[in-house]
Write a structure and sequence with these properties.
Aspartate Aminotransferase, domain 1, Aspartate Aminotransferase, domain 2, 2 domains, seven-stranded mixed sheet, 15 helices, about 15% strand, globular, binds pyridoxal-5'-phosphate
Length: about 400
């Protein structure tokens, strides 16, 4: 193409910086073990937290859905893209996460892109209005992009340092007498590069004190966090106290695609009218809808799956720390193994793959310079033998690369 030289220059720059993102393809389902180039490797990099991507009941539901409800919807929701199963799934999600209602999107990315402009770009009967979003500095790209879609003429965006509740309170206090229409506090429930949690109980308090809407993206928490997998509100004892919860069906809950926003009945009804990714984009296909229903049913009935995830996580965290690797402390299945330079993370990822472990590196600009890491993600699909194999490979490669003594 005419401008390929521009792309080539940038691609060369990425290569030179050793930050090129390689895709390592495999030829088997997403599971505890996958097949890379004919060789079995342990999967330690997926969001398949509960092993539902290849669960027999989830797959059966998807197959049955195709037979009974067809393959695709060929429509947006309000034209002819709503089947009874879409309504059923929305009810189930709302019940599970403890909100009055929920609305489906094609992804959580779309949900987060939908939420902010749907509220902030609308006059709602008032010509003169101004809104403000207080956003955690480590929030996911989809929240950032959602905020970017809000008109700067009528909205302010104030970034507070990751989990710096004192700074957030200062910002809220300073704005106390400003006549804002909506005040929104937006945060990830789990910060996906760190495996750390938002301080949800304190955020709930602040939102109450300053009449702000608390928006929490619980993508890495739904099905994962809390005794029964209901997410960060369950873990921090604030179920039903978070105003808006967004989440994904593309990680623990089946791992295919789809997202949602849960909140009050009125807000969800409003989003059905106003949010552009809902109104102008296809509705979720039946196999995903039915498989997601099956996944939530499974999760609600069988508590041992979440327990297995938590046990596996504790086992790996203990083992990797005992080997001498520096990890970010915590209890989430995202376990960042800190390595420093991007090239080290890059090289270690390749060496681990050779040793039978699939794990990927993250580096600047995804994480700060000098904080490159391997992001291990634990799953209920892993056996103890899988985890032991991974720990063994980390030890061998770590010693070879002189990361371990
Ligand atoms: C915190 C967070 N929010 C949103 C998303 C987007 O989710 P989806 O894949 O459903 O678009 C992700 C996915 O990586 C995420 O980690």
């Amino acid at each position: 193409m005419k401008y390929d030289n521009i792309f080539t220059d940038e691609l060369n720059r990425i290569h030179d910086a050793n930050t090129y993102k390689y895709e390592t393809s495999f030829s088997t389902p997403q599971a505890g073990e996958v097949n890379v180039n004919g060789k079995k490797v342990v999967m330690m990099a997926s969001n398949n937290y509960l092993g539902m991507s290849n669960h027999s009941l989830v797959k059966k539901a998807a197959i049955e859905a195709i037979k009974e409800y067809g393959y695709g919807m060929a429509s947006v929701r309000f034209l002819c893209g709503t089947q009874t199963i879409h309504l059923e799934l929305e009810k189930k999600i709302a019940k599970f996460i403890g909100t009055e209602d929920a609305i489906l999107f094609s992804s959580a990315f779309a949900a987060n892109n939908a939420f902010f402009p749907s509220l902030l770009n609308e006059k709602l009967g008032s010509e003169n209005y101004r809104d403000v979003i207080y956003t955690d500095g480590l929030n996911h790209a989809s929240i950032i992009d959602g905020m970017r879609l809000c008109k700067p003429e009528t909205s302010d965006r104030k970034i507070y340092k990751n989990n710096d509740i004192a700074q957030l309170e200062q910002l809220l206090e300073a704005d106390k007498n400003t006549e804002y229409r909506f005040r929104i506090i937006a945060t990830d429930g789990v910060f996906s590069m760190e495996g750390s949690y938002a301080h949800l109980a304190q955020l709930v308090e602040l939102a109450k004190k300053y009449s702000a809407i608390l928006f929490v993206d619980d993508c890495h928490a739904i099905g994962v966090v809390g005794k029964t997998g209901r997410g960060t509100p369950e873990k921090f004892g604030v179920l039903k106290n978070v105003d808006v919860l967004s989440g994904t069906l593309g990680k623990a809950i089946g791992g295919a695609l789809g997202g949602y926003i849960g909140g009050s009945k009125k807000m969800v009804e409003y989003l059905r009218q106003k949010s552009r990714p809902y109104t102008f984009s296809n509705s979720l296909p039946p196999p995903i809808v039915m498989a997601s229903i099956a996944a939530i049913d499974l999760l609600s009935k069988d508590r041992s799956i979440v327990q297995r995830l938590h046990d596996n996580t504790a086992y790996f965290r203990k083992g990797i720390a005992a080997l001498g690797f520096r990890i970010l402390e915590g209890d989430h299945p995202i376990v960042p193994v800190m390595l420093g330079e991007a090239s080290v993370a890059q090289e270690m990822s390749k060496a681990l793959l050779k040793a039978g472990v699939y794990v990927k590196g993250l580096w600047f600009p995804v994480v700060p310079k000098g904080e490159a890491r391997l992001r291990v993600q634990i799953s209920a699909a892993l056996t103890k033998k899988n985890i032991d194999h991974a720990l063994g490979a980390f030890e061998t490669v770590g010693k070879k690369m002189k990361i371990l003594p």
